[in-house]
Amino acid sequence: MRIHSIDAVRGLAILGILFMNITFHQNGYANYAFFEEPLLSDTVISLFNTLFLDGRFRSLFCLLFGAGLAIQFEACEKRGQHFLDFSQARLKWLFVFGLLHGVFIFSGDILLYYSLCAFFILKHFTLPQDELKKKSIHYLIVGSAIMLVGGLVMAFVFDMGAELPTRPNETFNEEVALWQSGYLTQLGIQASFMLSTVIVAPFTMLW
What we know:
The structure is a single chain. The protein is mainly alpha-helical. 73% of the residues lie in helices and 0% in strands. The protein is built from eight helices and no strands. The longest helix has 29 residues, at 129-157. The protein is globular, with a radius of gyration of 20 Å.
């Protein structure tokens, strides 16, 4: 039995995520570039995205995914069905669909991440609440520390503080030309991104 209120909130979350990702759709390699003379519309949209969308709709969608797993767990218990067998089969397909979507359509896919995270937490569903709370705090601390150290390393090694290219700009024009040179080029870029996603998942969104 579906819970329509959760479906409605999930639809709202997807709309918010679409708004966040829409700039990547015109150039999946370099993302959107601001103009050297900033447009008022760019400033307003960027501020709105920062205040109301970025991080909030992703978090909401993650919570709904976790709630969905919990609902499936309870349903399996009521039916006397083994939850791990039921969920692992679904998550394998989620991984496949996420991989195909990330390589062939949009490299910002989140389904693959969800499947990896879900495989990691499946064994925790039967733990008592106190044990779950301890593990949650532990994962939050460890994950935050990993992302903080990783961010500092990236900032120093790869000069992540460097200014992003603006328009008109030769670097931006080269990136756009590369992205628009052909679908095979886009497949190569997106496949590389998805591969790096799987590799760095234990150090980023998995937590």
